[in-house]
């Protein structure tokens, strides 16, 4: 927020207005004559021949990542001190383990394939998809675009998901998105860019930010597991809505990603105790 204008400038303007409403008063306002400096021909010549100053290139600021142990330690210490209930949970469970991401394009392609599918079926289709490409390092935009929708359907990818994969690949091949730009974009801009891809909605972007890019301050307000975890941790009568999630979990900033991971862990622990597996089907974007 810009500071308000100084009172002295406001007073000066109002005073001049009052004086100028009365011509006799206005004529009494003293004005100092301005001195006009004449430029010599040498100065003009020097200015014309002066070499331009080199422009300073500012390197993009890489957003923070939870990949490093010191950053994770900072997150855990902050959460312990800011939320006593979460501190107990942190003491009883190890910190989240985040796997490295070799390629944002590969991670996004995988997230599309896994949408709305049980883990076993999704893994089977993904394995066939990797075989079709040759290997994971060959999962590239032009490679995916070379496969017709019918070819993708033969390995179990639905027609709708095939169109999602092609749209993602097209945005990468045309430069709208790239692995490099994704790694350097801030969360807000990246959210806007990725949700412009067909089949990628808020939930998929949140999962990508947390588990692929390891961004520290992401709160997936639409995730059923995180919402249930918050309900259980704070003893709420009803499942919190997105706005309530923002308010309740505000104390976790700037490490809401880690807090969210502990909500999943809380629900997994409860499911293990009840002998039930956690379902995430209602949390995902897109469709079969």
UniProtKB/TrEMBL annotation:
<dbReference type="Pfam" id="PF00730">
    <property type="entry name" value="HhH-GPD"/>
</dbReference>
<dbReference type="InterPro" id="IPR051912">
    <property type="entry name" value="Alkylbase_DNA_Glycosylase/TA"/>
</dbReference>
<dbReference type="InterPro" id="IPR003265">
    <property type="entry name" value="HhH-GPD_domain"/>
</dbReference>
<keyword id="KW-0234">DNA repair</keyword>
<dbReference type="InterPro" id="IPR011257">
    <property type="entry name" value="DNA_glycosylase"/>
</dbReference>
<dbReference type="GO" id="GO:0006307">
    <property type="term" value="P:DNA alkylation repair"/>
</dbReference>
<dbReference type="GO" id="GO:0008725">
    <property type="term" value="F:DNA-3-methyladenine glycosylase activity"/>
</dbReference>
<dbReference type="GO" id="GO:0043916">
    <property type="term" value="F:DNA-7-methylguanine glycosylase activity"/>
</dbReference>
<protein>
    <submittedName>
        <fullName>DNA-3-methyladenine glycosylase 1-like</fullName>
    </submittedName>
</protein>
<dbReference type="GO" id="GO:0032131">
    <property type="term" value="F:alkylated DNA binding"/>
</dbReference>
<dbReference type="GO" id="GO:0032993">
    <property type="term" value="C:protein-DNA complex"/>
</dbReference>
<feature type="domain" description="HhH-GPD">
    <location>
        <begin position="113"/>
        <end position="268"/>
    </location>
</feature>
<dbReference type="GO" id="GO:0005634">
    <property type="term" value="C:nucleus"/>
</dbReference>
<keyword id="KW-0227">DNA damage</keyword>
<dbReference type="GO" id="GO:0006285">
    <property type="term" value="P:base-excision repair, AP site formation"/>
</dbReference>
<comment type="similarity">
    <text>Belongs to the alkylbase DNA glycosidase AlkA family.</text>
</comment>
């Amino acid at each position: 927020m810009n500071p308000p204008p100084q009172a002295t400038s406001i007073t000066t303007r109002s005073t001049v207005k009052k004086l100028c409403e009365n011509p006799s008063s206005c004529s009494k306002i003293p004005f100092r004559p301005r001195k006009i400096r004449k430029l010599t021909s040498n100065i003009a010549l020097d200015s014309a021949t002066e070499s331009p100053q080199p422009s300073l290139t500012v390197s993009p600021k890489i957003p923070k990542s939870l990949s490093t142990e010191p950053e994770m330690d900072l997150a855990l210490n902050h959460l312990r001190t800011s939320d006593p209930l979460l501190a107990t949970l942190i003491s009883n469970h190890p910190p989240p383990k985040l796997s490295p991401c070799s390629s944002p394009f590969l991670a996004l392609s995988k997230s599309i394939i896994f949408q709305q599918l049980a883990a076993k079926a999704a893994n089977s289709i993904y394995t066939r998809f990797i075989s079709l490409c040759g290997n994971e390092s060959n999962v590239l935009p032009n490679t995916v675009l070379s496969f017709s929708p019918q070819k993708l359907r033969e390995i179990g990818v639905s027609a709708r998901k095939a169109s999602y994969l092609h749209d993602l690949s097209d945005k990468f091949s045309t430069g709208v998105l790239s692995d490099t730009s994704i790694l350097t974009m801030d969360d807000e801009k990246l959210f806007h860019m990725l949700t412009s891809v067909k089949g990628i909605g808020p939930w998929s972007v949140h999962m990508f930010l947390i588990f692929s890019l390891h961004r520290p301050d992401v709160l997936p307000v639409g995730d059923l597991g995180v919402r249930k975890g918050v309900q259980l941790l704070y003893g709420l009568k009803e499942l919190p809505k997105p706005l309530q999630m923002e308010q309740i979990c505000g104390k976790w900033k700037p490490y809401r990603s880690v807090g969210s991971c502990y909500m999943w862990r809380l629900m997994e622990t409860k499911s293990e105790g009840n002998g039930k597996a956690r379902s995430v089907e209602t949390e995902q974007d897109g469709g079969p």
